């Protein structure tokens, strides 16, 4: 026992968790760090960009409205930094607002998939047997539905609304994640630390939360960051078809659609600015996700 | 000690797994893999029972069935008189604190996302959720110190330790509830030879100190020799011999045990020559389709006609030795 008292006084050594290791590896990856900075800048733009302009996204500049094609280009004099849209509204304000919607759609989709998909998949995989069978068949059935078609129908029947868009995204985004989480769970479930927890009598929900989910999280986070851009593209596609968010609200997809429609008049800024934000953000998400994957799973490189 | 009643008493324990043949239709009935097929043994308080057998003979499955981590097909597992297999979940949970397990792969048996302090504390917090933080910490430090891990390492993660240290942490986790039985499933197979001895000695010291019973699984006899009071030899889910350790090494009864002993390097060459029984070359039969009669007959040099017809029962041969063989 004297031995115990000896070490009792010694300083407790800090450990390096796997997360800390991953963070160090991530910060050594230049492309990933650059992408992270881009994403931070884009988010700041979405959150605070509106403060830099006197214009709102729905106000029409009556002075210039008749001459958008000739006078509506980007200019500091008129305070339309990105020019005007075809209706004479400030494009900068509209891009800020579109960025908000697009990012929100990406993030909500990713969050739903992380929370619902991970817990659903981990539960199915861990409990196994008939419950697993039923739960995964439900996923199969939902996946077999041509969701784009269903969503378009919903939007047509119930009218275009951002709420409907979120419902649609919520319905589909977690399905892949549930499958991924289940697959990973099956392999983690047979690890001895889970057996040890079962043998000690730890309850099933606690095992899932404490032992399974934290070990899934690496894969889940990577998949979620890669899901954000695909959700954004999904929304953009819907908006491109003219079924997305409702005016005066807008999104990257809707803005690109609008700009593309004006291309033949030479008002390229209308396409260029939203397209620029759309592209750099998507690239940044992909590189960021890639960097996370390398950092979280060094064996997989 | 023989007058005492056994701590654990296993009777006719069977664990069968359903195996679907490849490409089978959903409605075809699955094949039965008899991983454990009628095992009987008693474990006395304070005793160490070694279990040996080739890979795949059902050692882990037997251990897991006792802990009710796989469902048993039949039989009884009496723990201090209660049949564990017929308890409900809550009743079983109460007994889980009395029996703990140590695993083969030391690193894999520790959750990589938890600190070793959290890992060792988990059983305590699970069974006594009301224990104060300070008390948990003291208990964790004490038990880590006992297994030879500096208690100021509690905030470190498993990957920061060596295999031997990880196994010590696993032992600490098993000890924190002060159980009566620890089942060690090949606890040293994954370790370097030099470290194997340290871990085995640690287990023996702790056993002496706490009066624990141990079930010690290994796939070769030399490891078990040092630690066991009695040894049980498994073959394809069947017990072929249970003996006092001394007796088993001196005069192995079953032809399979003899073959195993002859494979262990023995310092005295004369003893070696006497025990010479070579396994026939035949492969280990599949547990999906075990041989009729004596499961060992396809590899037994002494097999006779009767061996294919009836299964030899485990019979007492005196000197605390039980052997399942028609001929010997
Ligand atoms: N969950 C399971 N489902 C189906 N078959 C299983 C399962 N677990 C084990 N088996 C089979 O049961 C048999 C016994 O396996 P077990 O793991 O108990 O062997 P073991 O003696 O511990 O071997 P090892 O020395 O390799 O650990 C093997 O044939 C194995 O394939
Ligand atoms: S019963 Fe027959 S086959 Fe089995 S071990 Fe004895 S002699 Fe060999
Ligand atoms: Mg095993």
TrEMBL record, chain A:
Chief localization: membrane
Domain of life: Bacteria
Keywords, ordered alphabetically: Cell inner membrane, Cell membrane, Membrane, Peptide transport, Protein transport, Transmembrane, Transmembrane helix, Transport
Membrane disposition: Multi-pass membrane protein
InterPro entries the UniProt entry points to: BP-dependent_transpt_permease (IPR050366), MetI-like (IPR000515), MetI-like_sf (IPR035906), OppC_N (IPR025966)
ABC transmembrane type-1 domain segment(s): 99-286
Transmembrane regions listed in the UniProt entry: 31-55, 101-122, 134-156, 162-181, 216-245, 265-289
Entry's localization field: Cell inner membrane; Cell membrane
UniProt KW Transport keyword: yes
Homology family: Belongs to the binding-protein-dependent transport system permease family. OppBC subfamily.
Protein name: Oligopeptide transport system permease protein OppC
Gene that encodes it: oppC
From TrEMBL, chain B:
PANTHER family: D,D-DIPEPTIDE TRANSPORT ATP-BINDING PROTEIN DDPF-RELATED (PTHR43776:SF7), TRANSPORT ATP-BINDING PROTEIN (PTHR43776)
Compartmental location: Cell inner membrane
Protein name: Peptide ABC transporter ATP-binding protein
CDD domains in the cross-refs: ABC_NikE_OppD_transporters
GO molecular function: ATP binding
Chief location category: membrane
Gene3D superfamilies: P-loop containing nucleotide triphosphate hydrolases
SMART domains for this protein: AAA
Membrane topology: Peripheral membrane protein
Sorted UniProt keywords: ATP-binding, Nucleotide-binding, Transport
């Amino acid at each position: 026992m004297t031995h115990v008292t000896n070490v009792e006084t010694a300083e407790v050594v800090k450990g390096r968790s796997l997360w800390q290791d991953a963070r160090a590896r991530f910060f050594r990856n230049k492309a990933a760090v650059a992408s992270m900075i881009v994403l931070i800048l884009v988010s700041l733009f979405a959150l605070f960009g509106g403060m830099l302009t006197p214009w709102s996204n729905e106000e029409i500049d009556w002075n210039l409205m008749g001459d958008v094609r000739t006078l509506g280009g980007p200019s500091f004099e008129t305070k339309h930094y990105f020019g005007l849209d075809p209706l004479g509204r400030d494009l900068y304000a509209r891009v800020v607002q579109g960025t908000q919607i697009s990012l929100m759609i990406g993030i909500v989709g990713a969050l739903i998939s992380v929370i619902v998909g991970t817990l659903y998949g981990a539960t199915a995989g861990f409990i196994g047997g008939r419950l697993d069978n039923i739960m995964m068949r439900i996923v199969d059935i939902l996946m077999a539905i041509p969701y784009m078609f269903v969503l378009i129908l919903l939007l047509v029947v119930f009218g275009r609304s951002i709420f409907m868009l979120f419902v649609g995204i919520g319905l589909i985004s977690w399905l892949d994640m549930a499958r991924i989480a289940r697959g990973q769970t099956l392999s983690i479930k047979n690890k001895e630390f889970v057996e040890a927890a079962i043998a000690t009598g730890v309850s099933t929900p606690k095992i899932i939360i404490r032992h399974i989910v934290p070990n899934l999280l690496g894969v889940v986070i990577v998949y979620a960051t890669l899901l954000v851009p695909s959700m954004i593209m999904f929304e953009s596609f819907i908006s491109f078809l003219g079924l997305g968010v409702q005016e005066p609200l807008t999104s990257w997809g809707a803005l690109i659609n609008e700009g593309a429609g004006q291309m033949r008049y030479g008002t390229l800024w209308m396409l260029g600015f939203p397209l620029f934000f759309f592209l750099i953000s998507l690239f940044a998400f992909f590189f960021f996700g890639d960097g996370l994957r390398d950092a979280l799973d060094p064996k997989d490189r | 000690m023989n007058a005492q009643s056994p701590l654990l008493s296993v009777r006719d324990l069977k664990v069968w797994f359903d195996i679907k043949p490849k490409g089978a239709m959903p409605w075809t009935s699955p094949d039965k893999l008899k991983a454990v097929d009628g095992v009987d043994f008693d474990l006395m308080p304070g005793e160490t029972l070694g279990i040996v057998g080739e890979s795949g003979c059902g050692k882990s499955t037997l251990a897991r069935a006792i802990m009710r981590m796989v469902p048993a097909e039949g039989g009884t597992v009496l723990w201090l008189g209660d049949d564990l297999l017929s308890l409900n979940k809550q009743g079983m949970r109460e007994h889980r604190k009395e029996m703990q397990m140590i695993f083969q792969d030391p690193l894999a048996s520790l959750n990589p996302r938890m600190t070793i302090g959290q890992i060792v504390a988990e059983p305590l917090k699970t069974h006594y959720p009301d224990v104060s933080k300070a008390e948990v910490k003291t208990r964790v430090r004490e038990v880590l110190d006992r297994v030879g891990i500096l208690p100021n390492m509690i905030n470190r993660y498993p990957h920061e330790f060596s295999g031997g240290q990880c196994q010590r942490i696993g032992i600490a986790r098993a000890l924190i509830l002060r159980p009566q039985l620890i089942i060690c499933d090949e606890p040293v197979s994954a370790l370097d030879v030099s470290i194997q001895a340290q871990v085995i000695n640690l287990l023996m010291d702790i056993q002496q100190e706490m009066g624990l019973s141990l079930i010690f699984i290994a796939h070769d006899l030399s490891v078990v020799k040092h630690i066991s009071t009695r040894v049980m030899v498994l073959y394809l889910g069947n017990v072929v011999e249970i003996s006092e350790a001394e007796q088993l090494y001196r005069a192995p009864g079953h032809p399979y045990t003899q073959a195993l002993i002859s494979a262990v390097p023995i310092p005295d060459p004369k003893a070696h020559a006497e025990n010479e029984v070579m396994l026939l070359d035949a492969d280990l039969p599949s547990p999906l389709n075990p041989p009729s009669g004596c499961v060992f007959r396809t590899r037994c040099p002494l097999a006779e006609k009767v061996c294919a017809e009836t299964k030899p029962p485990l019979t007492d041969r005196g000197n605390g030795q039980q052997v399942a063989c028609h001929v010997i």
